[in-house]
């Protein structure tokens, strides 16, 4: 019997995951982007300009805050929150957007497009486009424009054009499809700012690099305050950008447990879930080989979560590899657990965290009591929850006009 | 296995596209046979995908009609078996990478070989990732048809070297759909391809008139018409046979048909 062996291209791979599975029409542009990123990531002027913007515009470094009341209440590990919610525009998304838009400008682009789920990435993109005097168009699933109406208006206020996408499930996946199609039509003057560690190479690597400032700061801040490394770092996972940012500089510290919290929706044993790492299987979509929620015939399955930012049927390829190597543990958090945590952190610490980040807080509530008081958990608060207040009120049966 | 390359040896060669299972397996078989009878040189069968990122609204809607009829990859192979009882027209599949990957590369191409399906066009498989599929296709005598885009330029030699079947030249930027004008620098792109390979060059995306088909046959070796035929099915899902035949004859330059 003749053995057939296939050769997997090694460019942009994390184990068997990653790659560049996109239409030929975009490949020249992807090649140009790869070259530009390889050049500018080590360019002293580029680095200096990005650093200045991160400090003086985005409000970095973000605080590492010791949540003493919550630590005492849970009666176990000391809990620290990395306050990405205090960044300008209210989430970690600005770290990546500043990097990519600055790069796009160096490449001579004048127009920026982006997808958005909860609207956090769209708001960050519209903000930086305004700052840099660039044209901006945002693609957002129609369902998401309804559940995140406030962010739609924010983006428009910032001068962006928002396209509500009604094809497919009308959520993040469809917004990515529409943004990719738009990029295929017009790439000469346009850069597509992908908001997560997904898509074809170089995006998963580039977005991770721009977000890795989170773990770099955590490490320095915690060492300064406690002289120790954390025992665990916990972050929510949709496409995976805030999580990889929070994990990256700890990957080679084996004593640090890394835990990603994905959206289980109504539960991982129901069909109303977005827990890709627990329920998905290997496939090829949105430019990458990774894990995806699929039906029996290789079609992408509809997913569900209360959180528009985690409502995605795939996962960044580096996370798929980190799960395969067992370096990171991924757990599912249900809507109910996330909403409880949303209320708990508000009432215990006076912080209204995004419903996405509340998935991570929910796991901290389970983990902390199992640990000793001299141990440390760092939880990444990826965004603030103002945008979610109306939706959570509705979830609790309170009707308010937002 | 039918020699795909030979299909483009004649005059005014024409590839007709339809989505497998649109609007039902039974009708889809009938429409493919109709295309063959009316003179299509090759029929390209689209395998529906949940997220057809390279396709415009016309083909997306056709995918949805096929899904409404519960189409699956296995049913498509069964459908091809029925087509093969009626015609030997050269067939190629258009499929997104995940449908083939999830079915299993070896199993997929083995079924292609059994049913005399000569090639696969995979819009989200650039040359960078091609080597993970080509060995399986080659083992079963099936061509992996490369796509060349207006933006390919210096990538062309790498894309077309060593390919078999035909080369799918994308006429314009963006997604599939009907267009009134196709890009003018096609001639140059064809020359760049011909400098590297003798594999026939067939132009697709936006082509829908007999005049365009003739023009593409002068510039290159043939034309692919997709959305034009799918629109006829959209207009009259269960009774499009005569319209398809008339359209294909018109494209082949045999009859002039009034709209």
Automatic annotation (TrEMBL), chain A:
Domain Tryptophan synthase beta chain-like PALP: start-end pairs: 57-383
One cellular component (GO) term of this entry: cytoplasm
Cofactor(s) of this protein: pyridoxal 5'-phosphate
Keywords assigned: Amino-acid biosynthesis, Aromatic amino acid biosynthesis, Lyase, Pyridoxal phosphate, Tryptophan biosynthesis
Residues modified to N6-(pyridoxal phosphate)lysine: 93
A single MF term (Gene Ontology): tryptophan synthase activity
Catalytic activity from the UniProt record: (1S,2R)-1-C-(indol-3-yl)glycerol 3-phosphate + L-serine = D-glyceraldehyde 3-phosphate + L-tryptophan + H2O
EC numbers: 4.2.1.20
Pathway: Amino-acid biosynthesis; L-tryptophan biosynthesis; L-tryptophan from chorismate: step 5/5
Top-rank taxon, per record: Bacteria
Matching CDD domains: Trp-synth_B (cd06446)
Keyword set includes Lyase: yes
NCBIfam families associated with the record: trpB
HAMAP family hit by this protein: Trp_synth_beta
Self-association state and partner proteins as the record states: Tetramer of two alpha and two beta chains.
Family, per entry: Belongs to the TrpB family.
Function according to Swiss-Prot or TrEMBL: The beta subunit is responsible for the synthesis of L-tryptophan from indole and L-serine.
Name of the featured protein: Tryptophan synthase beta chain
Source organism of this protein record: Paucilactobacillus wasatchensis
From TrEMBL, chain B:
Broad class of enzyme this protein falls into: lyase
InterPro entries xref list: Aldolase_TIM, RibuloseP-bd_barrel, Trp_synthase_alpha_AS, Trp_synthase_suA
PROSITE patterns membership: TRP_SYNTHASE_ALPHA
Pathway(s) annotated for this protein in UniProt: Amino-acid biosynthesis; L-tryptophan biosynthesis; L-tryptophan from chorismate: step 5/5
Active site: 44, 55
Keywords from the UniProt entry: Amino-acid biosynthesis, Aromatic amino acid biosynthesis, Lyase, Tryptophan biosynthesis
GO molecular function, one term: tryptophan synthase activity
GO cellular component: cytosol
Record has Lyase as a keyword: yes
UniProt-listed Enzyme Commission number(s): 4.2.1.20
Reactions listed under catalytic activity: (1S,2R)-1-C-(indol-3-yl)glycerol 3-phosphate + L-serine = D-glyceraldehyde 3-phosphate + L-tryptophan + H2O
Entry similarity comment: Belongs to the TrpA family.
Oligomeric form and interacting partners: Tetramer of two alpha and two beta chains.
Described purpose of this protein according to its UniProt entry: The alpha subunit is responsible for the aldol cleavage of indoleglycerol phosphate to indole and glyceraldehyde 3-phosphate.
NCBIfam families (UniProt xref): trpA
Record's protein name: Tryptophan synthase alpha chain
Origin organism lineage: Bacteria, Bacillati, Bacillota, Bacilli, Lactobacillales
Gene: trpA
């Amino acid at each position: 019997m003749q053995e057939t062996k296939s050769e997997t291209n090694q460019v942009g791979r994390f184990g068997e995951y990653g790659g560049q599975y996109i239409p030929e029409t975009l490949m020249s542009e992807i090649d140009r982007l790869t070259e530009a990123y390889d050049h500018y990531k080590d360019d002293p002027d580029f680095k200096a300009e990005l650093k200045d913007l991160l400090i003086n515009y985005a409000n970095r470094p973000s605080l590492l805050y010791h949540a003493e009341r919550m630590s005492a209440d849970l009666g176990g590990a000391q809990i620290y929150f990395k306050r990405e919610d205090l960044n300008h525009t209210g989430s970690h998304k600005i770290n990546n957007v500043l990097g990519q838009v600055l790069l796009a400008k160096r490449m001579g682009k004048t127009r920026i497009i982006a997808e958005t789920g909860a609207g956090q990435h769209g708001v960050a993109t519209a903000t930086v486009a305004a700052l840099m005097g660039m044209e901006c168009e945002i693609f957002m699933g129609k369902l998401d424009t309804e559940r995140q109406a406030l962010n739609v208006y924010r983006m428009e206020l910032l001068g962006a054009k928002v396209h509500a996408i009604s094809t497919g499930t009308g959520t993040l996946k469809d917004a990515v499809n529409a943004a990719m199609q738009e990029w295929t039509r017009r790439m000469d003057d346009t850069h597509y700012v992908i908001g997560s560690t997904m898509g074809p190479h170089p995006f998963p690597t580039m977005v991770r690099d721009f977000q890795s400032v989170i773990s770099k700061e955590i490490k320095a801040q915690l060492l300064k305050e406690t002289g120790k490394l954390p025992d665990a770092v916990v972050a929510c996972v949709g496409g995976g950008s805030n999580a990889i940012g929070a994990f990256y500089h700890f990957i080679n510290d084996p004593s640090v447990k890394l835990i990603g919290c994905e959206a289980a929706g109504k539960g991982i044993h129901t069909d109303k879930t977005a827990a890709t790492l627990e329920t998905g299987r290997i496939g090829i979509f949105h430019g990458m080989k990774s894990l995806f929620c699929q039906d029996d015939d290789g079609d992408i399955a509809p997913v569900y979560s209360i959180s528009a930012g985690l409502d995605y049927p795939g996962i960044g390829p580096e996370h798929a590899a980190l799960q395969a190597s067992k370096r990171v543990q991924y757990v599912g958090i249900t809507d109910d657990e996330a909403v409880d945590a949303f209320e708990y952190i508000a009432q215990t610490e006076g912080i209204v965290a995004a419903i996405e980040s509340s998935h991570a807080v929910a796991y901290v509530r389970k983990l902390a009591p199992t640990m000793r008081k001299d141990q440390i958990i760092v939880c990444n608060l990826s965004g603030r929850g103002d945008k979610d207040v109306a939706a959570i009120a509705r979830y609790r049966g309170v009707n308010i006009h937002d | 296995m039918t020699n795909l390359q030979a299909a483009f040896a004649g005059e005014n060669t024409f590839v007709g596209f339809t989505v497998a299972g649109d609007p039902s397996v039974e009708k889809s078989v009938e429409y493919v046979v109709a295309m063959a009878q009316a003179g299509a040189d090759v029929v390209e069968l689209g395998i529906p995908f949940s997220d057809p990122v390279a396709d415009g609204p016309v083909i997306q809607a056709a995918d949805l009609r096929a899904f409404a009829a519960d189409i699956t990859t296995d049913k498509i192979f069964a459908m091809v078996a029925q087509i093969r009882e009626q015609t030997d027209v050269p067939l190629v599949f258009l499929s997104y990478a995940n449908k083939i990957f999830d079915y299993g590369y070896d199993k997929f191409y083995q079924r292609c070989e059994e049913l005399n399906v000569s090639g696969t066009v995979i819009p989200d498989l650039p040359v960078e990732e091609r080597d993970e599929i080509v060995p399986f296709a080659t083992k079963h005598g099936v061509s992996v048809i490369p796509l060349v885009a207006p933006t390919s330029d210096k990538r062309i030699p790498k894309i077309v070297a060593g390919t078999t079947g035909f080369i799918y030249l994308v006429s314009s930027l963006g997604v599939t759909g009907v267009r009134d004008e196709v890009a003018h620098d096609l001639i140059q792109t064809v020359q760049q391809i011909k400098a590297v390979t003798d594999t026939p060059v067939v132009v697709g995306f936006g082509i829908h008139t007999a005049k365009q088909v003739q023009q593409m046959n002068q510039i290159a070796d043939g034309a692919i018409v997709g959305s034009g035929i799918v629109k006829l099915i959209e207009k009259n899902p269960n009774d499009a046979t005569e319209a398809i035949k008339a359209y294909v004859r018109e494209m082949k330059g045999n009859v002039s048909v009034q709209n």
